[in-house]
Design goal:
The protein is of the alpha+beta class. Helix content is 33%, strand content 20%. The chain is built from eight helices and ten strands. The strands form two sheets. Strands 1, 6, 7, 8, 9 and 10 form a six-stranded mixed beta sheet that branches. Strands 2-5-4-3 form a four-stranded mixed beta sheet, with helices on one face. β9 (243-249) and β10 form a beta hairpin.
């Protein structure tokens, strides 16, 4: 059983630990610089030949991950104040034909194929202005997360209701499912981080933020009562030896993962990155 103090969501020491660890989170495994190796290689390439180079040489890596949210202010609070990201910028009230077609053409075509109103498929009317899109960008050490909210034009930015209801079934086993993976620093206690994450989120009323357990539980009460050692799945054999992980739902029901990579698996990722950089440098 977890002790009461450890699970107290109002413990200021726990909030301090979590925010410090959250500020140190890195999305991705092997990045050692804000500038990807492919960007460095592409920068050395003559401009005249860049457009005929392989596609990989024309990329600068992954710029951001986007998450469509139900409540913008709540999601923003989680990724900045709980996990320690920094706001880059915010923009919004996007509407009109160009942005509608940019984002939604494929779904409009699919609706016509099915002979249904696009609104019944969750396609907002940005073209006519009935709905609007707001965005906020949040910077972590080596990647940006974009929060997006589609809302009716009559709804206010930030706290307004979303246009479409969230999916009820959020199993990561569904095809097309994606998740955001945060890399916990090596000197951070994984089990304690998960405990503090849940406590701080609960303190803020973000009851959807719940991490899984590595032991079988059949109710929310059993999940909360599980020992703290059940917060982490530590792999000690095979190619993933040294990998620690747990899946967790975010405040909007989005799928999150938290990992640490130590020992053999860390070396595997480092060697893969080194090999990629050598290959790009040779081209």
């Amino acid at each position: 059983m977890c002790d009461d103090k450890a699970n107290n969501p109002h413990d200021p020491d726990r909030r301090t630990v979590l925010q410090a660890a959250g500020a140190a989170l890195v999305v991705g495994m092997a990045a050692t610089s804000a500038v990807p190796a492919s960007a460095q290689t592409a920068g050395e390439m003559p401009a005249a030949s860049r457009n005929s180079a392989p596609l990989g040489a024309r990329l600068q890596g992954i710029q951001h991950f986007g998450v469509t949210v139900q409540n913008m202010d709540r999601a923003f609070e989680f990724y900045t104040e709980v996990l320690g990201g920094s706001e880059v910028m915010r923009d919004g009230d996007f509407q009109g034909e160009a942005i509608h077609n940019t984002l939604l053409t494929d779904q409009e075509i699919e609706a016509r194929k099915r002979r249904v109103n696009p609104r019944t498929m969750g396609v907002p009317d940005l073209k006519g202005g009935g709905q609007r899109l707001d965005v906020r960008f949040i910077q972590f050490d080596n990647v940006v997360i974009e929060l997006l909210q589609y809302r009716d034009a009559t709804q206010p930015m930030g706290k307004g209701d979303s246009f479409a209801e969230p999916h009820d079934h959020m199993s990561p086993a569904y095809p097309r499912s994606m998740h955001i993976c945060f890399y916990i620093r090596e000197d951070v206690d994984f089990n304690q981080f998960v405990r503090d994450l849940e406590a701080e989120s609960a303190r803020r009323g973000m009851t959807q933020v719940r991490a899984n357990r590595v032991i079988t539980v059949t109710s929310e009460q059993e999940r909360l009562a599980a020992p703290m050692s059940a917060n982490t799945n530590r792999i000690t054999a095979g190619k993933s030896n040294g990998w620690s992980l747990i899946y967790c739902k975010g405040p909007e029901g989005e799928q999150l993962e938290f990992v640490q990579a130590l020992g053999p698996v860390k070396k595997t990722f480092e060697e893969a990155l080194s090999a990629r950089r050598s290959k790009l440098a040779a081209n």
